[in-house]
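In this section we walk through a basic example: taking a raw amino acid sequence and producing a predicted 3D structure, encoded as discrete structure tokens. The instruction is simple. Fold the sequence below.
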Amino acid sequence: MPAPDRFHSLMQIGPVQIGTYRDRYGRTKHAAVCTTDGCGWSVTKYTTSTAAQLAARSHRCRIH
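The resulting token sequence is shown next.
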């Protein structure tokens, strides 16, 4: 049974929220998720927080 996702080190850049978690193999990963209703953009495979922050800064939400 895999361990539940437990995010820590949460950060908000514009509408995008970034969280750090450990995957089922114990590796530290970073997720970036747009919190705008109806957007649906998310990526959960970043290995560094810098990459997740860059994605958050470059995300352009198409919902107005």
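Looking at the output, two observations stand out. Residues 49-58 form the longest helix (10 residues). Strands lie at 8-13, 16-22, 28-34, 42-46. In the next section we compare this with other chains.
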